[in-house]
Amino acid sequence: MIVLEPLCKEDVIPFYSWLNDDDVIKYSMSLFQRLNSPEQIKNWFDRLLEEQNTYNIGIYVETTKELIGYAGISGISTLNKSGEYFIFIGDKNQWGKGIGTIVTQKVVAYGFEVLNLHRIMLTVSQPNIGGVKAYERAGFNVEGVLREACYRDGAFHDKIVMSILQSEYEK
Asked: Which residues share a beta bridge with 84?
């Protein structure tokens, strides 16, 4: 179905349309709300490829090698053995197919087995029901709620804090 492979400079191309689609960026990081021009997107993507304390990986359709998004772990702390999971599926045709759960499981496995992390956390917008379900299926547990921490569509909504510990991870 999908394969995870390193991103390359040419992979920026689909981000030009994805980051200008309000549906695609609705629950994504706030930065995506401000990236509009091709130059801004290219500069962001170039910096993304150079980040040192982040594991970034492209999500590709296995049969066509088409990029449909990216995922990873940011803010990796070697001292605390922790990081923050993220996923972005820009290709709307791939939504609702269980890809989020598969990718989350693979990235979590990499975090625990290769990066030797102890804890991986994330935040998810409360209205993003599909995201919450995917994270629960991948073993994440709710830790708490950041009340009205996100502003979208003219209203504030909660961000759910979730995490998984290495001891809870099932290989």
From this structure: 74, 121
**Domain limits of the chain?**
2-119
- The alpha helices in 26-163, defined as continuous H runs, are 31-34, 38-50, 99-113, 129-137
CA distance 75 to 119: 12
**Crossing angle for the helix pair 129-137 and 99-113, to the nearest 10 degrees:** 50
* pLDDT tens digits, 4-22: 999 999 999 999 999 999 8
SS3 of residue 84 by DSSP = strand
> pTM for the complete prediction?
0.92
SS3 153: coil
> What separation in angstroms does the CA of 149 have from each of 30, 68, 124?
11, 28, 11
For domain 2-119, the question of CATH label 3.40.630.30 is answered with: yes
Indicate the pLDDT class of residue 60, thresholds 50, 70 and 90. very high
For the beta sheet containing 2-5, the strands, ordered from the edge strand earlier in sequence to the opposite edge, are: 2-5, 55-61, 67-77, 82-89, 119-125, 155-165, 141-152
The two three-digit tokens of residue 138, written as one number: 């991948």
